[in-house]
Amino acid sequence: MFVIANLLLALASVLRIMIVFFELCIIISALLSFIMPFQYSKIRVFIDSSANIILNPIRKFIPTVIGSIDFSPMIAFLILFFLDRFLVQSLLELGYLLR
């Protein structure tokens, strides 16, 4: 059973790292959206494309723009927070129980 426990713990750790990465990309993308001179930087293109992996499906299903304010980053944070607290935490606790 320790193999399955270690698998669950590793999976939870990788998911947590991915969630933190996407959260950072969304924050940096939102901050860089106020700065126009860096619009064509390779780093900004990478960060925006990484953030859009999460933001585009939200924008497609939920009209999140009111005026010129985009609420999709806030909704994305709520979804990522839920995934971290529910899915990742459940996997961690199940992995520790199986040890």
Question: Which helices and strands, and how do they pair?
Answer:
Layout: H1 2-32, H2 42-61, E1 65-66, E2 69-70, H3 72-98
Antiparallel strand pairs: 1-2
Helix pairs in contact: 1-2, 1-3, 2-3
Would you tell me the overall average pLDDT?
Answer: 90
Class of secondary structure makeup: mainly alpha
Strand content: under 5%
- Helix content estimate: over 70%
Low-confidence blocks of residues = none
Radius of gyration: 17 Å
Main sheet properties? 2 strands, antiparallel
- Tally of extended strands? 2
For the structure shown, list the relevant keywords.
single chain, 99 residues, mainly alpha, two-stranded antiparallel ribbon, 3 helices, 2 strands
Could you describe the 3D structure shown?
This protein has 99 residues and is mainly α. It has one domain (2-98). Helices cover 79% and strands 4% of the residues. It has helices spanning 2-32, 42-61, 72-98, and strands at 65-66, 69-70. Strands 1-2 form a two-stranded antiparallel sheet. A hairpin with a 2-residue loop joins strand 1 and strand 2 (69-70). The chain is elongated and about 55 Å long. The mean pLDDT is 90.
Question: What's the gist of this structure?
Answer:
The termini are close together. This protein is mainly alpha-helical and 99 residues long. It has helices spanning 2-32, 42-61, 72-98; strands at 65-66, 69-70.
